[in-house]
C-alpha cells in the first residue's frame, strides 16, 4: 500500500489557501498591531493543521481479492467482477474507492467503502466489457479520504491486481473434416509399434482371421481367452499454426485490424482442427521465447496465448520459418496467417513446404487494410511455391476464406 507522506501534500487547494492566508494575516496583524487580524490568521492556519493531525496516521490494513465471472470473456461479452475487501487491522475510516481499469473495459467504478472493524469484509460488484481481445489488468484500487471542510485530501493505493483475459473472436468453420492426401495427411496411415515402443502396444480379444503369431500368451493365460497384440496404432494428425506478428508488416497503430483478423483466423482454425482430432502446435514469437512451440498445446492454453499476443517491433518471420521447417519434414499440415509485406521473407517461408505436403496460408494484403496500394505487395509468392492460399482483406469472412483453402487443399499436390 502506498500513500501521500508530506503534510503539505495532503492539503487540497482550499487547504493550501487557508494556510497561506493564515500566515499572511498573522504576520500582517503582528506588524501592524491588529490583534484581531492576527487571531484570524492563526485560526486560518491552525484549522488545516488540526485536520491533518486528526487524520488517522496508520493506513488501513486491507486485503483485496477479485473474482471474475466468467473467468474468460469473449469480445462484447459482459463479465461481473466481485471485489472483496477484508480488514486485517484496526477499525478503518470511510473511503471513496476507485478501481483502475483499461479504458477499453469501460468506466472506472467508484464506490463508498464504509468503516470496517477487525475481520470485517465488504463485497462490491461491477461489470466490464471489451470490444477487443487482450490481457487487461484490474487494479490497483485507489482509496481517497477527504475531511468535512475539504481542506485535506489523502490518497492510498492498494496494489493488488488481477488479470482479465478477453479471448479472440472465434467463428465456426463448419463441420466438414479436412481430408488428407499424400504425405500431408499425417495420421491417415497407421504407424507401426517399432516407432513408439512396447508401451504403445494394445491388447484385444482374438477375432476370426487374426494371425496366430500375434497371440499374446501372457494376456491369454491371464484372461482365459485368446488375446492378440494390436500392433498397428493410428497416429494423430498434426497441424502447425503460424502467426505473423511483425509490427512493421501490419498497417495502422494501436489496434491493428490486420493483426486482429489474423489472430481470429488462427484461433478459429485451431478450434476446428482440435475438434477434428488434430494435435496442434502454435508458432508465435511468444511461444518461441517460452520454448513451447515444439510441444502440443491444449486448446484452452492456445486461446490464452492468442489473447495475450501483440505485434512486436523485433518480430521476424525468418525465426518462425526456421521453427516451422522442423515440422514440415514430417508431413504435418501447416496453416499460416501471414502479411504479404517482405518478398524475401515470404520466399523463405514458401521454400519450407515439402513436395506432397499441405501448406495453407491466409495471405493478408496490407493494401486492403490501409497500408498502401492494393496489388503492390507480393501476394502470390506462396502460391507459386505450391502453397494453397487465399488473399484476404478487412471485409473477408474467415469462414469463407477457410472454405476456399479447404477446397484447394483437396486439389493437386506438387
From TrEMBL:
It comes from the Bacteria. Coiled coil: none annotated. Residues 203-287 form the DUF58 domain. The chain crosses the membrane at residues 17-34, 40-56. Keywords: Membrane, Transmembrane, Transmembrane helix. InterPro entries: DUF58. Signal peptide: none annotated. The keyword Transmembrane applies. The keyword Transmembrane helix applies. This is DUF58 domain-containing protein. It comes from Serinicoccus hydrothermalis.
Amino acid at each position: 500500500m502506498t500513500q501521500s507522506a508530506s503534510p503539505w501534500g495532503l492539503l487540497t487547494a482550499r487547504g493550501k489557501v487557508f494556510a497561506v492566508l493564515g500566515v499572511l494575516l498573522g504576520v500582517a496583524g503582528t506588524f501592524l498591531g491588529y490583534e484581531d487580524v492576527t487571531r484570524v490568521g492563526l485560526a486560518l492556519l491552525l484549522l488545516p493543521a488540526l485536520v491533518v493531525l486528526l487524520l488517522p496516521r496508520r493506513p488501513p490494513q486491507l486485503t483485496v481479492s477479485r473474482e471474475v465471472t466468467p473467468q474468460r470473456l469473449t469480445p462484447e461479452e459482459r463479465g461481473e467482477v466481485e471485489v472483496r475487501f477484508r480488514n486485517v487491522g484496526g477499525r478503518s475510516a470511510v473511503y471513496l474507492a476507485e478501481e483502475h481499469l483499461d479504458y477499453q473495459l469501460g468506466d472506472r467504478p467508484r464506490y463508498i467503502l464504509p468503516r470496517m472493524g477487525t475481520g470485517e469484509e465488504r463485497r462490491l460488484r461491477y461489470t466490464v466489457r471489451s470490444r477487443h481481445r487482450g490481457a487487461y489488468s484490474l487494479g490497483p484500487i485507489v482509496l481517497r479520504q477527504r475531511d468535512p471542510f475539504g481542506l485535506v485530501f489523502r490518497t492510498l493505493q492498494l496494489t493488488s491486481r488481477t488479470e482479465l483475459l478477453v479471448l479472440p473472436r472465434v467463428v465456426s468453420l463448419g463441420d466438414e473434416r479436412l481430408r488428407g492426401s499424400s504425405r500431408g495427411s499425417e495420421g491417415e496411415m497407421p504407424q507401426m509399434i517399432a516407432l513408439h515402443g512396447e508401451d504403445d502396444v494394445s491388447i484385444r480379444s482374438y477375432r476370426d482371421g487374426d494371425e496366430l503369431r500375434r497371440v499374446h500368451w501372457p494376456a491369454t493365460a491371464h484372461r482365459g481367452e485368446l488375446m492378440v497384440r494390436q500392433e498397428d496404432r493410428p497416429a494423430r494428425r498434426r497441424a502447425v499454426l503460424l502467426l505473423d506478428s511483425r509490427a512493421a508488416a501490419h498497417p495502422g497503430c494501436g489496434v491493428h485490424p490486420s493483426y486482429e483478423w489474423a489472430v481470429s483466423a488462427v484461433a478459429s482454425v485451431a478450434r476446428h482442427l482440435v475438434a477434428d482430432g488434430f494435435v496442434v502446435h502454435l508458432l508465435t514469437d511468444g511461444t518461441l521465447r517460452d520454448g513451447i512451440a515444439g510441444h502440443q498445446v491444449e486448446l484452452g492454453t492456445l486461446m490464452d496465448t492468442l489473447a495475450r499476443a501483440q505485434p512486436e517491433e523485433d518480430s521476424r518471420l525468418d525465426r518462425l520459418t526456421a521453427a516451422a521447417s522442423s515440422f514440415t519434414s514430417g508431413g504435418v499440415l501447416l496453416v499460416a496467417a501471414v502479411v504479404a509485406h517482405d518478398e524475401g521473407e515470404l520466399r523463405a517461408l514458401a521454400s519450407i513446404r515439402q513436395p506432397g505436403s499441405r501448406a495453407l496460408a491466409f495471405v493478408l494484403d496490407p493494401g486492403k487494410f490501409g497500408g498502401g496500394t492494393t496489388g503492390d505487395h507480393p501476394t502470390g509468392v506462396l502460391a507459386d511455391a505450391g502453397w494453397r492460399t487465399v488473399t484476404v482483406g478487412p471485409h473477408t469472412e474467415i469462414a469463407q476464406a477457410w472454405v476456399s483453402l479447404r477446397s484447394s487443399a483437396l486439389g493437386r499436390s506438387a
